[in-house]
Amino acid sequence: MPTTRRSLLAAGGTAAIAFTGAWGALFTASAGASARSAPPAPPSGGYGPLVPDPAGLLDLPAGFRYRVLSRAGDRMRSGEGVVPANCDGMAAFATPAGGVRLVRNHENRTTAALRVPPVEGLTYDPAALGGCTVIELCPAGEVVGERVGIAGTAVNCAGGRTPWNTWLTCEETEDTAGVAGYAKDHGYVFEVDPADPRRSGAVPLTALGRFAHEAVAVDPVRGVVYETEDAFVKPFGLFYRFLPRRPLGGPGSLRAGGVLEAMRVRGVADLAVVTEPGTEFPVEWVPVPDPSAARTPIRFQDFGPGGITHAQKLEGCYWGGDVVHFVSSFARSREGAAADHFGQVWSHDPVRGRIRLEVVFGPATDVRLPGDSPDNICLAPDGGLMVCEDGGGAQYVFGLTRTGTVYAMARNADDIGTAGTPEWGEFAGVTFAPDGRTMYVNAYAPGTTFAVTGPWH
Fold it and tell me: Is 229:242 a contact under the CB 8 Å cutoff?
C-alpha cells in the first residue's frame, strides 16, 4: 500500500500540510497569552511516536502519561447518580484555590443507557436524558468532586466558554415537545455556571435560536456570540451571530435577548465550493425571520432574494486572536454538497467584515488529516492546535504546529475490537488547564475523561 500522510501518522510520524499566512492567526491567542504574543514554538515534528499503552487505554508519546478522571457508570461523588454516557464537548475553568473545574457535555439521545440524573432546580425537561456534569480537581489534579451541572436537555454536543467564565452548552437537535416523548421543545443553548450550577439553573436562551446547535464562541471585545449549526442533510446548516442586548453583561445576561442573524456570502450558496486557502469574501448578516423555528426550521426559512449561505457539518467554533474560527467537518457531493472535502477551517474578521478559508483537507490532496473530519478544536498553550478526530477506524487527537506540521498526540489504544470495529468512539472536548500543563480530553464511548500530562513545550 502506498504511504500516505494518514499511514505515516498511524506509525507515529509527522506530515506537513499547506496553509496560508493567515493560518498564523489561529495560533496568536491561547490560555494566558495575549492576542499579539508569540508563544514558544512547539517541537517541529510533534512529540515523537506514540507508545503502546500496556493498559490498553490511551497511546501517547514517550514522556507523557494519562490519568482516568471519570468513567461512565461510576458513582458520582455528589451522590446524584452515576456518571452519564456519551462524553462530548468540555471546557476547563480555574478555581480560586488553584484547582480546575471541568464542565463536560453528555450527548444523550432518548436511547442513552446512562442519562444525566435529574436534579431539582437543574432539570429542564425530565424526559430528556442529556446535560452536563462538572468535575472538580484539586491543585494536585485529583478529583475531589463530581456533580450534575444541568439535566433534562437533549443531545448536548459541543458549546463554548464565555468571557465571564461560564459554559454555553448546545443541544444538537430540533425535536419539539411531543417528539420522542419530550415534554418541551429542544434545540437551544443553555448557560452553566461551573462554580455553582444552581445560579444558572436550566433556562433555555431562546433568543439564540432553536436549531441543531454545535458550538459557540463569544467575541471577548464586543460580546457577539457566534454559533454553528450541525445539519448534514440538505439544506445544510448556517453560520450565525447573535447580538446581545447586554453584551458582556456577565452570568445570565444572554437571557435579556438580542438579534439573531445568519451569514450570507453573495454568490456562494455552499461553502464547499471554495477550495483555495486564502480565498476571502465579504459577508452580510441577515436577520433570521423566526429564531424560534415555530413552524419552519431556520435553514429552510426565506432569507430574501439573496438567499443564504449553507455548509455541511458545521462543527467547531472558537475565538483566537482577533477573529472567530469555525470548522466545516466534511462535505460530500453524494449527500448533496456542491463539492467534496474532508474538512475546512474558516475565519471571520468582524472588523473587516470578511471570511477567509484558512485550510482545506482533501480529497484532491489526499489529506484525511486531522482525521476523517476535524471536529472539536482547541488552541494549545504552545501556540498550536489540538484537533479531535470524528471519523472512521482508529481515532486520534492530532496536533497542528504553527509551521503546518500535523502529528499524532493520542490514539485510542484498542483500535479494533473483537467485532472488527473500533472499540472506542471519537475523541471529543479537548481542552487545556488554565496553566497549560494538562490536556483534558474525552473518549466519547465508552464515556471516559482523561487528563494528560508531560513535557508540553
Answer: no
Average pLDDT of the segment spanning 91-102: 97
CA–CA gap between residue 76 and residue 70 (Å, rounded): 9
Name which of 3, 10, 98 is nearest 406 in CA terms: 10
> Which amino acid belongs to residue 219?
D
In this predicted structure, which of 154-163, 245-254, 277-286, 387-396 has the lowest mean pLDDT? 387-396
Beta partners for residue 169, in sequence order: 159, 190
Residues 6+ positions from 428 with CB-CB distance below 8 Å? 87, 88, 89, 90, 158, 375, 376, 388, 390, 441, 442, 443, 444
Q: How far apart are CA 56 and CA 396, in angstroms?
A: 15
CA 87 – CA 433 distance, rounded (Å): 18
Residue 415 belongs to what domain range?
1-71+369-457
DSSP-derived secondary structure for 52-66: PPTTSSEEEETT-EE
- 13: cell is 510520524
pTM: 0.90
Cell of 110: 432518548
Residue 22 domain-assigned (yes or no): yes
Range scoring the smallest mean pLDDT among 104-113, 306-315, 339-348, 373-382: 373-382
Which secondary-structure segment (H or E) carries 407?
Answer: strand 405-412
> What pLDDT shows up at residue 44?
52
DSSP per position, 324-380: EEEEE--B-GGGT-SS-BSEEEEEEETTTTEEEEEEEE-STT---TTSSSEEEEEE-
Scored b (16 or more CB within 10 A) or e, 214-234 reads bbbbbbeeebbbbbbbbbbee
Nearest alpha-carbon partner for 105 in 65, 67, 72, 77? 72
Whether 157 is covered by a domain: the verdict is no
**53 in Cβ contact with 444 (< 8 Å):** no
CA atoms of 350 and 259, how far apart (whole Å): 16
Residue type, 88: D
Residues 138-174: b if buried by 16+ CB within 10 A, e if exposed = eeeeebeebbbbbbbbbbbbbbbbbeeebbbbbbbbb
In a domain, residue 83? The reply is: no
Is residue 131 included in any domain, yes or no?
A: no
Q: How far apart are CA 106 and CA 129, in angstroms?
A: 9
CA distances from 6 to 3, 191, 199, 394, 412 (A): 8, 38, 46, 11, 15
Q: How many domains does the chain have?
A: 1
Q: Which of 68-77, 161-170, 277-286, 425-434 has the lowest mean pLDDT?
A: 425-434
